[in-house]
Write a structure and sequence with these properties.
Four copies of one chain form a homotetramer. Chain A is an alpha+beta fold. The first copy, chain A, has helices spanning 5-24, 34-46, 60-68, and strands at 28-29, 51-58, 75-76, 82-90, 93-102, 105-114.
């Protein structure tokens, strides 16, 4: 069957999460460079269609804990070092979705779907 | 409002497309290496949850045309060199989505949503 | 034979260029988001060992020309949209290397090697 | 001062390592998909100039140990799951370089430089 407007909005939200994660996972990051990376990730993904807001928080306390337990002074960005919330508006449907750790897995989930 | 099962399936389909594109865009590719890349992309994304099939076709004719018009003997993978179809099964909902060029833009779209 | 100190410095310079390019190629970018991306790329790669300076310039005029010729309002970062200069200091050897377009190819090259 | 032929060969070797790591870090991988990913990584990077051999080994035993300790059935490719050896030939200079874990850090190093 054909997709509905809210289903397309959810699809678009998923695209943004997958893009964000796999574009930026692996980026060298430290507490000194996390602020510029947060901003660049948000502004980059906001370029994509129907994406009205991207809020990225890199978790400096988690970064510091990781650095304290290893030899190098930076690490690679991965899901356990960030929280993300993305808002999509598509033809009157609004979707808010988020990513945060669920145990050891970076879980992406739909928080709210407002149908037109 | 809460999301429905088909909306979550569509969200999951979007995640896979964003992941696939932004993980592999930029990969050095030529007609000689496209077959192994196709297979690796498909098997890699099939690891992700609820993803039952990933069919990637790298378009060797488009690659060859691009190489004929430039100096280097390889190029970087981008949307105009591939077609992708992904199937998601989530709690009885099935979503089939695809990516192909729509003019000059690599369009990801929902082709079919089967609700439980 | 064993590698010399300047050879190791040149190897380190190459690592930084390959990292920078393949981490960030494919990032959605527009003239509105290029400043934050420039800064994040530079600060990110400066985290890597022996890397004393990374200067990234995203070429807004090239971005604008690309956007004027296509339907979408953003594009994907690739070599033709940036110039990069990286400085490496390794045990008294200094290497300055750069990337810029050489015809249609993003050429990475050693500009200067100062031996200890 | 100008760079020497072996220094350029070392720079090229570094480019390949940085490219390989940051293109493929973050790729979803499991023991079932590691063979196709190994092959695709090798063939992809061999497209780059002066690169005569890329040998990638994804360490299935390390993958299995990681999966046994977590909830998801796949993980993201990172340095601790692979060994890599790359050979560069540039104008009569041959460089062999490798990446393997050095404690908790994926160390890239020059193993051998043969000068023309």
């Amino acid at each position: 069957m054909d997709s509905t407007t809210p289903e397309i909005a959810c699809f678009e939200a998923g695209i943004k999460f997958g893009s964000l994660y796999h574009q930026f996972a692996g980026t060298p990051v430290s507490p000194d460079s996390s602020a510029s990376l947060e901003r660049a990730i948000g502004e980059s993904i906001e370029n994509q269609p129907f994406c009205t807001a991207v809020d990225v928080e890199i978790l400096d306390d988690k970064l510091e804990a990781a650095l304290a337990a290893q030899s190098a002074e930076y690490t690679e960005l991965t899901g356990r070092f960030m929280k993300v919330e993305i808002t999509i508006d598509y033809e009157g449907a609004t979707v808010v979705a988020s990513m945060a750790m669920d145990g050891d897995y970076p879980r992406m989930k739909l928080d709210r779907v407002e149908r037109p």
